[in-house]
Amino acid sequence: MGIRSLTRTEAERRAALVAVERYDVDVDLTALPDGPEVRCVSTVAFTCHEPGAETFVDCAARVLSATLNGVELASAEDGRIQLHGLAEHNVLRVESVQADTTTGEGVHKATDPADGEVYVWMSFEPDEARFVWACFDQPDLKAPHAFTVTAPSAWTVTSNSGDARVEELETARRWTFPDTPPLSVYNTVINAGPFHEVRREVEGHNLGLYARRSLAEVLERDADEIFTLTRQGLAFYGEVFAMPFPQRRYDQVFVPEFGGAMENYGCVTWSDVFLRRAAPTPAEHDLLARVLLHEMAHMWFGNIVTMRWWDDLWLNEAFAEFACHWAAERATRHTDAWASHLMIGKISAYLSDQGPASHPIHQPIHDVAQAASIFDNITYPKGASVLQQLKTYVGEDHFRTGMAAYFARHAWGNTTLQDLIDSLSEASGRDLDTWRTAWLETAGTDRFTLERDGGTVTLVAADSPRPQVLAVGAYARNGDTLERRALVRVEVTETRTAVTGLPPADVLLINDDDLTFATTRPDPTTRDALFRTAAQLPTAISRGVAAATVWDMLTTGEATAAEAGRCLTSVLTAETSDAVIEPYLTLAANVAELWAPPAERVALSAEVAAACRSLAGDPGRRQVALRGLARTATTADDLAWLREQAGDDVDLHWRALIREAELGGDTAAESDLLLARDPDPDAWLRALTVRAALPDAATKAEVWQQLVVDRTVPVNSVGLVAASFWRPGQDALLAPYAERYLEAVPKLHQGGMILAMSYTHRLFPLHAIDPAYIEKAREASREAVPVVRLTLLERSDEVSRMLRARSRSA
Question: Measured between alpha carbons, how far is 387 from 319 in angstroms, rounded to an integer?
């Protein structure tokens, strides 16, 4: 059955015609333990402003029966049921069944390999609710939802409103949930299974955590941290938005085979890979905090106030991404969250915004299929960075006042970009129309450098810059370090801006404190000094600004891999913030593995490995350093030392095995023994990752079959296995799979948006290709669906830059 994508024109016509009063949805999960089917009865009460008119309701599940006001309807076509002769008040009843719960969209059944228990989750962004039950699947038709769920007796069911009434039936239980507030259908959820549950009363909120039973011990280990972050986040957002979270119950459900996390109102769904089987590193703690606060911010940005149409997706995602860093810095122990954002998300956004997949943050969206393609680096990290600049531009007090007015004015409704701009303009007294056009409706990245003429310093933009406020820091040497002597903020409106008030300095750092979204360049006379002194800057954010410049110069061909790799390794060894040690280590290893010419790869890897062995002497950095060594070990001595240091750490032994397999070692017997003693229910994926790294033709074929053809690898592990598959130095073995990737492009969208993005990006060949292959990939993208096309263009551009860097010697 072909499924049509809802267009903006259709959505506007439908929203003008109908208003949804409520949804009553009965869901039957009793067939799932032994079979694939989810059965639903969706009853929709709605009004029509033009009695006698016609429209359609979305339903991409198999329809068993459908009636409108008691009159039987024709079967669904193209994922739609036509509704003719609408009355002023209407009741639609649709009974449907979804049997594709393994590879389909909207609902997923997962079986825990540890004990055979079954878990089911639903996730509906952007328009996947229609794959489960009949609904008006567009964001501006909000309504209360009442869910009644029949599930096996041993299962627990979670949904948005919590506090269900539970009835015991003969062989099952019925969960009847209270009405939700008015929600878009994509904000609703049902999760179910024999969950382990942890609950806590915190400052007037009833907080719940859920995970599969085989991860009960890990959930209990992390519960205090998660509850603390949840308490801190709810308090911070309630204060700065002048609107406490209006529901007492707030649940977070960790489920298997899920990609990322989803902000369902009052019941956030997480991938349970966030419950780390090994003790989490500082960067993993930091990521947990930022994701938790991101999804929580959506309770306001997305759920309470929802974009009218997908061209304002940034109102949801960019604001949640901005707010999570704001909250982490102000309300939690993760005070270097913005430094993490810079070295993980922002540098990726710089790259994306300078490539063929760049687009304005706010742009016309024709249909939902196109909307699925903008859940990307422009909408998320660039959008968050632009909002950080907006807060700086209008002032934080005005920003908070404007946001409070925005939520008070639009709670439980839908908004557009102009609604937000109006609130912030009123609060700040600034005309933001020029700002909006430059930042939100124009693609691309500003670039700045400094000119010095005696005591005069001028900030120079490469092209006409956006209106913005940024800072220049002045640093003077003090022994082996640099000290900041002054920080001067300037408001940029022209190509050339005088910077006054700077004292004599050894180093001037543009965009110090990382207040804006713009790349920078040293002038030719200070270029080499930047590479030498980046590690001497005194704070995580100042070092990050310098390192981001070095990384950007690598990606644009203005620095060699050797220069960038050695600079990043020096920053890594000098870094004082635990939150960014791991991102720096990842970048340095990526330079050696993916950007360096083959003749320099081993030497650069050895330098990173040596840094790791040195860092391992610090107890607080030992775990991260040993993980880095597992990736960059170049000698038998490195591997032997790593195994000795690993002791009983199963995670480190798996990492060492992957590296040994890549280097041609015989790892089969040890992998079997490690698999037998690893308590992780998903340890089989670690064993598969070891096999993926082997330089063996038959094994490569087996792994490709599982990964790409059979799709037996859960989406949250595709990147891990694919990174192990595409190893440097295995070009002869990998060449056939570069072509098979192109053959797979037409099917990469199957399974929905998250799978499409993950498969397209993660499976892209990193070795055994040349510039001609990049052109073939770009050609293949033209016939792909939008989410695959944009992801493929972005990834091919990045890998093309890697190929150019590999052709340059130090």
Answer: 7
713, 707 contact by CB (below 8 A): yes
- What whole-number distance in Å separates Cα of residue 411 and Cα of residue 335? 30
Separation CA 131–CA 555 (nearest Å): 41
* Cβ atoms of 271 and 208 closer than 8 Å: no
Dihedral through CA 691, CA 692, CA 693, CA 699, nearest 10?
Answer: 70
DSSP code per residue over 360-414: -SS----BHHHHGGGSSTIIIIIHHHHHHHHHHHH-HHHHHHHHHHHHHHHTTSE
Beta-bridge partners for 459: 450, 497
Q: Is the peptide bond before 126 cis (omega within 30 degrees of 0)?
A: yes
Active-site option among 95, 125, 257, 295? 295
Lowest average pLDDT, out of 135-139, 206-210, 451-455, 632-636, goes to 451-455
**What crossing angle do the helices spanning 540-555 and 561-574 adopt, rounded to 10°?**
170
Check residue 810 and give its pLDDT: 59
The token pair at 371 is: 């909307």
Distance of CA 598 to the CA centre of its chain: 32
Active-site annotation holds for 775: no
| CA 183/CA 710 separation, integer angstroms | 36
In which region does residue 768 sit, left (phi positive, over 0), alpha (psi from -120 to 50) or beta (all else)? left
Tokens standing for residue 466: 């956006």
CB-based contact 540:791 (threshold 8 Å): no
Q: Put residue 469 in one of left, alpha, beta given phi > 0 → left and psi -120 to 50 → alpha.
A: beta
Structural contact between residues 555 and 799, judged by C-beta atoms closer than 8 angstroms = no
How many Å apart are CA 780 and CA 791, to the nearest integer?
12
pLDDT bucket at 707, cuts 50 / 70 / 90: very high
508 alpha carbon, distance to own chain's centre: 34
Angle, CA 63 vertex, CA 61 and CA 65 arms, to 5°: 155
φ and ψ at 113, to 5 degrees? -65, -15
Taking the CA atoms of 611, 613, 618 and 624 in sequence, report the sign of the dihedral they define. Answer: positive
Mapped onto helix, strand or coil, the DSSP state of residue 260 is coil
Whole-angstrom Cα distance, residue 253 to residue 426? 39
pLDDT of residue 121: 98
Report phi then psi at 754, rounded to 5.
-65, -45
Backbone angles phi and psi of 478, in degrees to 5: -140, 90
Q: What is the DSSP pairing of strand 156-159 with strand 306-307?
A: unpaired
Using the 8-state DSSP alphabet, how is residue 183 labeled? B
Give dist(CA 33, CA 746) in Å, integer.
33
Look up the pTM and report it.
Answer: 0.97
- pLDDT at 117 > cutoff 70: yes
